[in-house]
Amino acid sequence: xxxxxxxxxxxxxxxxxxxxxxxxxxxxxxxxxxxxxxxxxxxxxxxxxxxxxxxxxxxxxxxxxxxxxxxxxxxxxxxxxxxxxxxxxxxxxxxxxxxxxxxxxxxxxxxxxxxxxxxxxxxxxxxxxxxxxxxxxxxxxxxxxxxxxxxxxxxxxxxxxxxxxx
Length: 166
Prior knowledge:
Layout: H1 35-90, H2 93-102, H3 118-125, H4 135-143, H5 149-164
């Protein structure tokens, strides 16, 4: 099939190419400067700035307190060392001996060893003891007149070890 060509006038625009009417755009009202927004922004910036300033202030105050306390610790450590030296000097055996002799005490000349219990010694010298007699002594005197073999062995070892100490 053969179709005849249509005559076209090139000077007239094609109907598809004609400009359409411009679309209606909604006009946006210009924004007013809101004093409320500015106030909120100012408030937030003040809070952040105040918090930062407070933290800086507290950190400097605390660091000063720490340095003062460290100086106090050093001073107390020096004082503690001086007191330890003084305690060592005051508790020396030579000083105590010289102080005792200065008070009128006498240095013992010979050794005295005590063998047996204290209650037996007090009864021989006539001194009454305020302390109760040891349990072994009361059991031994109640059961028999002579001390038991265990008591004799313990007295022997006590006397032996007491005589070896100087």
